[in-house]
Structures are given as structure tokens and as C-alpha cells.
Amino acid sequence: MLVTIVGCEKNGTASNKDLQQNGADSEIRIVSLSPALTRIAVDLGFGDLIVGRTRFCKSVDLAIPVVGDHFAQDFESLVRVKPTHILIQPPRNEIPSALAEQAGIQSWTICSFKIDTLSDIKNVTQQLPGAIFVNDSARLKQANIKASVLIVAIDEIVISRKDQPWRGSVLLVHSIEQGISIFGKATYLDELLVGLGCTNAAQSVTGWAQLTLEDVTRLNPDAILFITSTFNSKANSMQAIGVLGELPIDAVTENRIGILSHADALLPATSVIEVADEMRELLNSFAGSDQ
What we know:
By secondary structure, this protein is an alpha/beta fold. It is built from ten helices and eleven strands. It folds into two domains: 4-158, Nitrogenase molybdenum iron protein domain (Rossmann fold), CATH 3.40.50; 161-290, Nitrogenase molybdenum iron protein domain (Rossmann fold), CATH 3.40.50.1980. Helices cover 35% and strands 16% of the residues. The strands form two sheets. Strands 6, 7, 8, 9, 10 and 11 form a six-stranded mixed sheet that branches.
């Protein structure tokens, strides 16, 4: 049994060994088990090749069959859509053993990528085309051009911070249902925030974490951004942050609360370009509260 697995290696390059076993570009059929990788594939111009998705993949035609996700795959559906490539973003870079076994039987190429930071997003954007298309093909060249444009746009987020009128400490919250779930350091939203000239109020925390109300009070952020992928025009900022709105912190007393609502806000993907624009606008709105 032989299974081909490609992805981001430690040296930051992509391996495409044995990729031509799956035939020409016209025969490529992609299953994405990662909403982030789905969005990146769409932005690179080959979302039309996706034939299977997760139920969270909203950036492609919703008529495309749902075949599972990283944690559970519907192998009958997978076999039915006849993929050549499977995109996956596994926690701790561990590919499910059952998926690897089926990939060997069915001759699927598994493209596995780690995506946490802006650097990860740029690396995947650069490397994904080469993991999908054969060398020197027209579609590879087209995707590489799009990748270059996207990477420049991501880099420009960081160099634009000189124009940021408000700079303070911001708590990045994405859920208040079971504890206060936040984005700490070494996450793509933390890097966006820092790139825009602000600081993460939870800079002592790395990755995605949960805080208590006491933790938030101690951190005393200058502002709170509630990050959501659900658009709810009827909810105001205080309703969105729930119990956080009752805390004696500067963000509440100065009414520096913002709702960053974007369909792909919670995806470490090329959508960060759009998310950064919305974050910048919200941070700019806080400048008036200091006057």
C-alpha cells in the first residue's frame, strides 16, 4: 500500500514527490476537509475543482457534497466523489490513520498543512498550487500569479500600521459560551492586531485559550473585539459580549467594544486580507473615544 502525503515541510518548502501519479490537471478532483484550505483554494482560482467539503466550508457551492471533516470522514461519500487530492489541516499535524489507509487503497494524495499564523497562511498560499498541479501546467502558473498577489496583500497589512490613529491593548474574544475564549499570541488574528499597531491584551497567553472573568478584569483591556462569523445586525456590541459588559474594565467604561463580523473571520486563510480591513475600521472608530 502506497499513500502520497504532501504539505509544508520543516524547511518551509512543499514536497510534490510522485504527484503526477494522479494524472493531468484536467483530471484533478479535490476534497477539502478544512474550511481554511477551501477558502485559500478558492482565492487561488481552483475552487471549481473541489468535489467534496465539510459542512463548515461556505466559500464554495453548498451543493457540493459534505464528506466529513478532520475528525470524522464518510468514506462511502469520499469514494463516491472520486477525489485525486484531499486537503487537510490536522491538529498537531496528525493525519487520521483510517484516512491514510483509505488514501493508500484509493491512490488519493493527501495534502496536509499546519495553519496558525500569518506566516503559515502565506506559506500555504505559496505552496498549495504546487501540491495540486503538475509542473509547468497553465493552471499552476495562473495559481502562482494569484498566490503572489495575495501574499503581497497580506504583507501590506503589517506595513500599513503607521496610519493607525488608535493604539491600545485589545482583547480578541470569539466566544463567551463556555468561558471566555480568546486569541492569544502566535495566532493570525493576534498578528493582524499587532500589524495594525495595537497590542494583544492577552499577550502572556499563546494560541487559543480560555479566560475567566477574573482574568479579564486583571488584564483590563483598553478595548474588546468580538470576532464572529455570524452576521447579526440586531445585536449591539454590549449584547454580543454578554457578561463581559458588566466588568469594571476600561474597554467597558469607555465603550470601546467592537463586533468584527465576517463569514471567514475565524479561518486562518487568505480571507485575513478582508478581515484586516474590518479590524482597521473598528480600531479607527475607537480613536474618538479618547477625545
